[in-house]
């Protein structure tokens, strides 16, 4: 399997992020007002929060459970998702806000983004936490979160409410992803930014490496790196701003040679990173938001992102390499730069390029409704992305050997 690889050879990486803007439960989420049980949430990332109103919402995330067996207490980590809709953030009736038509919806993130869980009177009638009902949560947890909410979470975690020690939960839409549009050409889904690129890159890695003899002539390391917290700056233990990438490259190199630390710099110079993050497609109702020569379109294939101020890490050489792979396989490819009179977003690309010193190209599939609770992209672009990533893994070594550049 490693016939041609030696320590110091390069890494061929696709990097993406797994997080999306959302509403996360506060450490103390119990809110009661106006006869309603509500759940306190905090905003994560730069979401289009008005799209979260009037949606059928639930919660998902991880829970820390106290387990006791044979008198020994241990603590387990479980992933949960309450399947049915249990929350909603209702909009205010237009009769009570006559200016909304002329001035637009003005959302106060603290006051208005508070989902309704139940009414107080119905909660009492149901007696979810009555003395003769299910076991009540611990006193500490009971003061921080509604017992009704803990009961729903405990049911999914297959435990008692009192066994819940802590959790990290976020709100999510219960409407499933669909292939849609009059000609079934679109994908309507939450969190396309950036689970779409995460999925395509991981599938491409698996498929490019799982066939017998597929790695016989590979001298590098094919790799996918998925990071958290990109939407809030990447500065975390599992974000692109952490040492995680550099440490991984170092450990892999060192596992093949005791002098791995001396060979790491050589490996980095031979490496290449595709920073894959969804791109802004041209919006037919806001044509002026894109300049005429850089208008990524749905079904147009992956978008190479450029920015002279290094908000993207693409340069002429890295763009050429990625574009050449597309041309070899007759895959469509597009270019994007933001208008000079608009601010430019960024990705994990510049963070890793500067932190690791690796050649990088910033790319992404085009989409609409970015950072909405319900985004959309073209089904064709999923296929193009997968094929492009797979060809990158399979052909980069050979192509890079033909590129003579003094970096």
TrEMBL record:
Q: Name one Pfam family in it.
A: Peptidase_M18
- In which domain of life is the source organism classified? Eukaryota
Any GO BP: proteolysis
Keywords, A to Z?
Answer: Aminopeptidase, Hydrolase, Metal-binding, Metalloprotease, Protease, Zinc
Q: Name one GO cellular component term.
A: cytoplasm
Gene3D superfamilies this protein is in? Aminopeptidase i, Domain 2, Zn peptidases
Q: Which cofactor does it need?
A: Zn(2+)
Q: Which InterPro entries match?
A: Peptidase_M18 (IPR001948), Peptidase_M18_dom2 (IPR023358)
An MF annotation (GO) of this entry: zinc ion binding
Q: NCBIfam families attached here?
A: PRK02813.1 (NF002759)
The family assignment reads: Belongs to the peptidase M18 family.
Q: Which PANTHER family match?
A: ASPARTYL AMINOPEPTIDASE (PTHR28570), ASPARTYL AMINOPEPTIDASE-RELATED (PTHR28570:SF16)
This protein's name: Aspartyl aminopeptidase
This chain's source organism reads Zea mays
């Amino acid at each position: 399997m490693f016939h041609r690889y030696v320590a110091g050879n390069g890494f061929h990486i696709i990097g993406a992020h797994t997080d999306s803007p959302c509403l996360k439960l506060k450490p103390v989420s119990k809110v009661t007002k106006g006869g309603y049980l509500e759940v306190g949430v905090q905003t994560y990332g730069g979401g289009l929060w008005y799209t979260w109103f009037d949606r059928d919402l639930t919660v998902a995330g991880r829970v820390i459970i106290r387990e006791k067996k044979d008198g020994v207490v241990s603590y387990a980590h479980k992933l949960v998702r309450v399947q049915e809709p249990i929350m909603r953030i209702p909009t205010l009736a237009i009769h009570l806000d006559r200016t909304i038509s002329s001035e637009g919806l003005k959302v106060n993130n603290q006051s208005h983004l508070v989902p309704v869980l139940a009414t107080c009177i119905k909660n009492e009638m149901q007696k979810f936490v009555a003395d003769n009902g299910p076991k009540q949560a611990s006193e500490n947890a009971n003061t921080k979160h509604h017992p009704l909410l803990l009961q729903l979470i405990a049911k999914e975690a297959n435990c008692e409410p009192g066994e819940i020690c802590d959790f990290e939960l976020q709100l999510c839409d219960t409407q499933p992803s669909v292939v849609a549009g009059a000609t079934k050409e679109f994908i309507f889904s939450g969190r396309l930014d950036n689970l779409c690129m995460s999925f395509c890159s991981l599938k491409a890695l698996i498929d490019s490496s799982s066939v017998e003899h597929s790695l016989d002539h590979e001298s590098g390391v094919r790799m996918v790196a998925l990071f958290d917290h990109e939407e809030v700056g990447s500065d975390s233990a599992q974000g692109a701003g952490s040492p995680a990438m550099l440490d991984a490259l170092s450990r892999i190199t060192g596992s093949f040679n005791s002098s791995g630390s001396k060979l790491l710099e050589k490996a980095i110079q031979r490496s290449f990173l595709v920073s894959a993050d969804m791109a802004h497609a041209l919006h037919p109702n806001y044509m002026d938001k894109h300049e005429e020569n850089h208008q990524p379109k749905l079904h147009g294939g992956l978008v190479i992102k450029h920015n002279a101020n290094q908000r993207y890490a693409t340069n002429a050489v890295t763009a050429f390499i990625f574009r050449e792979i597309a041309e070899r396989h007759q895959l469509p490819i597009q270019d994007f730069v933001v208008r000079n009179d608009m601010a430019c977003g960024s990705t994990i690309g510049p963070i890793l390029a500067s932190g690791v010193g690796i050649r990088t190209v910033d790319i992404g599939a085009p989409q609409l409704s970015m950072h909405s609770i319900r985004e959309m992209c073209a089904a064709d672009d999923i296929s193009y992305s997968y094929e492009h990533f797979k060809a990158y893994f399979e052909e980069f070594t050979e192509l890079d050997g033909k590129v003579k550049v003094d970096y």
